[in-house]
Amino acid sequence: xxxxxxxxxxxxxxxxxxxxxxxxxxxxxxxxxxxxxxxxxxxxxxxxxxxxxxxxxxxxxxxxxxxxxxxxxxxxxxxxxxxxxxxxxxxxxxxxxxxxxxxxxxxxxxxxxxxxxxxxxxxxxxxxxxxxxxxxxxxxxxxxxxxxxxxxxxxxxxxxxxxxxxxxxxxxxxxxxxxxxxxxxxxxxxxxxxxxxxxxxxxxxxxxxxxxxxxxxxxxxxxxxxxxxxxxxxxxxxxxxxxxxxxxxxxxxxxxxxxxxxxxxxxxxxxxxxxxxxxxxxxxxxxxxxxxxxxxxxxxxxxxxxxxxxxxxxxxxxxxxxxxxxxxxxxxxxxxxxxxxxxxxxxxxxxxxxxxxxxxxxxxxxxxxxxxxxxxxxxxxxxxxxxxxxxxxxxxxxxxxxxxxxxxxxxxxxxxxxxxxxxxxxxxxxxxxxxxxxxxxxxxxxxxxxxxxxxxxx
Length: 458
Hints:
Layout: E1 4-10, E2 27-28, E3 31-32, H1 34-43, E4 48-53, H2 57-67, E5 72-75, H3 82-89, E6 99-104, H4 112-124, E7 127-135, E8 144-147, E9 153-157, E10 171-180, H5 181-188, H6 204-211, E11 215-220, H7 233-253, E12 257-258, E13 264-266, E14 271-272, E15 277-278, E16 282-284, E17 289-290, E18 295-296, E19 301-303, E20 306-307, E21 312-313, E22 317-319, E23 322-323, E24 328-329, E25 334-335, E26 340-341, E27 346-349, E28 352-354, E29 357-358, E30 363-366, E31 369-371, E32 373-375, E33 380-381, E34 386-388, E35 398-400, E36 405-406, E37 411-413, E38 416-418, E39 423-424, E40 429-430, E41 439-440, H8 452-457
Parallel strand pairs: 1-4, 1-6, 4-5, 7-11, 12-15, 13-16, 14-17, 15-18, 16-19, 17-20, 18-21, 19-22, 20-23, 21-24, 22-25, 23-26, 24-27, 25-28, 26-29, 27-30, 28-31, 29-32, 30-33, 32-35, 33-36, 34-37, 35-38, 36-39, 37-40, 39-41
Antiparallel strand pairs: 2-3, 6-10, 7-10, 8-9
Helix pairs in contact: 5-6
C-alpha cells in the first residue's frame, strides 16, 4: 500500500504466559504467534515494516528474520508503555510523512481484509487517527472508547483509570490504529505517566489529537475474536482453535472433506487437492502439499511434506519427505526427513523410513527399518528387516536393486548392494554384496540335539 509504514508492538514481557519462552514466539496453530502480524503487513504490500522488541530481543529478532528479513527490528530497552514504544520508533521515521499503522504482535487473528478496510478509510477521510473498535458484552480489562453526545470519539480510558459511569461502556479499544505521522509524533511529545500503571499510554494521544480540533475516526469489527489479545496459555489455546477451524473451513470451501473440523489441525497455506478426506486428530503443518482424492488420518502427522494423488496415510508420521501417487503409508509408520517414496508403494505397520529412496511398486509391509538406502522397483522387504546403516562413526548406504526379494528377519549390514532380481534367505545377516539373480544365505546350519530335554530334566 502507498505511503504506509507498519509498526508492530512486541516488546512486552508476557509474564502471564508463565513461560520462559517469549510470548510472541509461543506456537499458535503451528506457527510462532508473531508470524501472523508479520505476514499480514507483508501481504498488504506495506513496503516499510518495523517491529518493536524488548524482552529477549535476540531470540525474537532471530525468529523475525526467518519470517521476514526486510522487517526492521527496533529495541525498546525499557518497557515504559505503548506510547514510549512509538517514541522509540520516531527516529527511524524522521523523514516519513504518511500513514503509520500500529499493530500488536499478540493480536494474531486479525484479518487482512479488516486492516485493508481500515487503512483505506483512514486515507480517504479527514481523520488524524483511525481506531479499530469492537463492542463486547464483557469488556473488563480493555480500554474503553469515550464518545461525546454527538457520537464522536474524544478519548480512550484504560481499565484501571475508568470512572464509575464509564465501566458500563461496552465499546473497547483493540490497540490497532492508523495515524497521520505528523499528528502522532507531535502528540507523543505531550504524553506523561500520570496514570494507574505509570506508563506512557499510546491511548493518551487520542485525546491530545482531539483537543487540537482534529477528527478521530473508527472502524468496527463484528467478530470479537478477530481483535482478541493473547496474554495467557488459555487464550493461546483458544486462539489456536479459532485459527485451526478457520483453516479447515477454507479447505472445505475448496472441495476438501474434513470429517471433524474441531478435531483437525491444519496450518495456513497448506495446499490440499479436491476430493481428499482429512480424518480427525490429524496435524498438517505449514508447507505441506497433498494431492487429490487422498485419505489422511486419523491420527496422522504430516510435516513439511508432499503427498500425491490417491494416497492413504493412516495413523502415521511423515516428516520433510515426498510421497508419490497411489501409495499407502501405515498404520503406525514413520517416514523421517529426506525420504522419497515413489508411486504405488506400500509402507505398512511399524515401518520406519529414514533418508531413503523407494521406487515404484516396492512393499515393506511389516516392522522394518530402512535407513540411508536406495530401493529399486518392485522390491519386497520381508517382515523384521533391518538395515544396519550406522557403524558408530558414519552412516553407510545400502542399495537394493529392482525385483529383489528380502526374506523375513534379515539384517543388511551397510555398505552393501543386493543385485537385481536376487533373493536373501529368511533369518540372514547379509554383510557382503549379493550378485544379481542369486540367493544370499548368511546363517548357521540348524542342528537338532535329540533327547536334550530329557537329559536336562535329569
